[in-house]
Structures are given as structure tokens and as C-alpha cells.
Amino acid sequence: MPQLPPPRWSEEELAESAAEAVRRFREIRMREPLGQYLEQFDEFRNTMEELIERTVDLSELSSQAAELLVDRQVLTTVRYLAGPPISADDLKVIAEASLAPKNLEWDQEMARRIVDTVLLGLDRARFPWMGEDREPTAAEREIAVVSTAAMIATQKLQTARRHEAKDEQESLVADALAQREFVRVATRTVENISHFPEPGEFCGESQFGGRKADLVVRLWDGRVMPIECKVSNSSTNSVKRLNNDAAAKAKTWLDVFGTATVVPAAVLSGVFKVHNLASAQAGGLTLFWAHQLDALTGFVEATRL
């Protein structure tokens, strides 16, 4: 019996689904409470105020580096002194350092190197006094505190949004599969077909063919469907999440296991450009939408022999 091909959508269908996903994205964002942002803002405003006071307007930041950076919240705030802020991963590479609190406490020279690296990229617009060998005015100090706290709070909220949305999406897919008699089994590392779940089983985040998959589903006909759950908050961001990540993984999985064995898929929500969707689909990635999971479960059910 020939295998059922996965669904492929026309550009018109992709455009219609993408428009609905954007509409739902807007509704969710408008319902989000302002309190989440304000809570983060207040927290990092206090941290920034204390940092400026403790280090005499940042002039003693380097000399106090070891005792300051062991506090994870202070470390985050210090990263945001640069313009643009330095990510934790970039800072570790550039400063050739570990950000683990125990290592920072033990190696004071390394802690100073981290601070000095940040200060090389210090945002002079937010901290104009630092290059002028003077004390800041009250207004300059307030602007520095408020703007830095706002930057951190915004980034923290955006990161939390992505994680919460992705986790919710994975739960929705798992629940939809369970309703179709699929059984959840332990996560695993899948290097060859002997590691696949059994037909009618699925597992959560697993290493699959050398790349991480959010879910790994064994279809009733024996094929396996690794699923990536992708949430995008902008069309620009969608290129990274869809084309550079999910579609790239699909190519790897198809190369490793072959088209007769694997059906790479992505479940999407948020903002995506139609031509990026079409490109990912043309590369072998099967697309489903979080607001249309019946399409996914319908395909899965149709693979029963």
C-alpha cells in the first residue's frame, strides 16, 4: 500500500492561515497584562539604582566586579550597560570567561575582565559622564536607570512570551495526539530507526538524527514525524525560527533517514511571511498551524494501515 503523502498547501491557503494566525497573535498580545512588564521594570530599576550607588556612579564597577557579578540579576544588568547589550553567550566568548557564580567569586581577574569587556562597549548616550571624568547630573542618573530598566524588562518579557507560547503549543499538540489514542513515552536520543518510538507512540523533546526535535511522533504506518513548535512575533523573526531552524532541521532529517521514513513537520503560530512559508514547504517541511490542529491529527489518523 503506498504511503500517504503529507499535506501541501497552496500559496492562497498559506496566506489565509497566516492571516488568521496574525489575527490571533494580536488578540493575545492585547490581552496581556501590563503588570508583567511593570514587575520586571521595577525589579531591574531597583537593581540599577543600587548598582550606580554602590559603585559610585559606575566608577568602581571594575574594582568590585567579583562581589557584584555573583548576583545573577546584577550580572544581567551589567550586560545591558553596553550599547547594544551583550548576550550572555557572546560575553563568555569575547571575555574568554565563565559566568558561573562560583567561578566568578574564585577568579577575581576573570570577573574584572568581564566588566572591562562590557565597558569597552558602554552606551555613551545613556552614561555620558563615564567618558567625561565627572559626576552625572540627577537627570542623567535617572535617565540611565529608567532606560536600562526598560530595556531589560522588555527583553525579559519577550523571552518569557516565546517560552510560554512554545510550551503551550507543545502541550496542545501532545493533547491532540493523546486524543487520537497516541501514547506518550520517554524522551530519547534517536540515531537510527531502532530508536524510534513504536507506531502510535510519541515522545517529547529529543535528539533526532543529530538535531533537537520538540516532539517525535511514530505514525501508524511506521514513518516517524519529528515536529518543531515555532512561535514568531514578527515576520523578520519568522525567518530565523522557520527557515533557518525548522526547515534546516528538516533537510538534515531527510538526509539522515530519507523521505520514505521521515515526515518533518512544524506547528506554527504568530507572524510568518507567505513566501517564507512556501520556501520551507518546498524544502520538505510539512506545515501545520496551532489554530488548525485538526489538519495535523487528520493526517496522523489517515496513516492507519
Strand ordering within the main sheet: 1-3-6-7-8-9
Low-pLDDT runs = none
Order of helices and strands: HHHHHHHHEEEEEEEHEHEH
Number of E-state strands: 9
Distance between the termini: 8 Å
Count of discrete alpha- or pi-helical segments spanning 4 or more residues: 11
User: What is the mean pLDDT?
Assistant: 93
Structural category: alpha/beta
Strand content: 5-15%
Oligomer: single chain
Categorize the overall geometry.
Answer: elongated
Largest sheet: 6 strands, mixed
Helix content: 40-55%
- Radius of gyration equals 24 Å
What does this molecule look like?
- The protein is elongated.
- It starts with 10 loop residues before the first helix and ends with a helix.
- Helix 1 crosses helix 10 (274-282), helix 2 (34-54) packs across helix 8 and helix 9 packs parallel to helix 10 (274-282).
- The longest helix is centred in the middle third of the chain and has 42 residues, at 138-179.
- The protein is built from 11 helices and 9 strands.
- The protein has helices spanning 11-31, 34-54, 65-69, 72-79, 88-94, 101-106, 108-120, 138-179, 235-257, 274-282, 293-302; strands spanning 183-185, 189-190, 201-203, 206-208, 211-213, 215-218, 224-232, 265-270, 286-289.
- The strands form 2 sheets. Strands 1-3-6-7-8-9 form a 6-stranded mixed β-sheet, with helices on both faces. Strands 2-4-5 form a 3-stranded mixed β-sheet, covered by helices on one side.
- The chain is of the alpha/beta class.
- Strand 4 (206-208) and strand 5 form a beta hairpin.
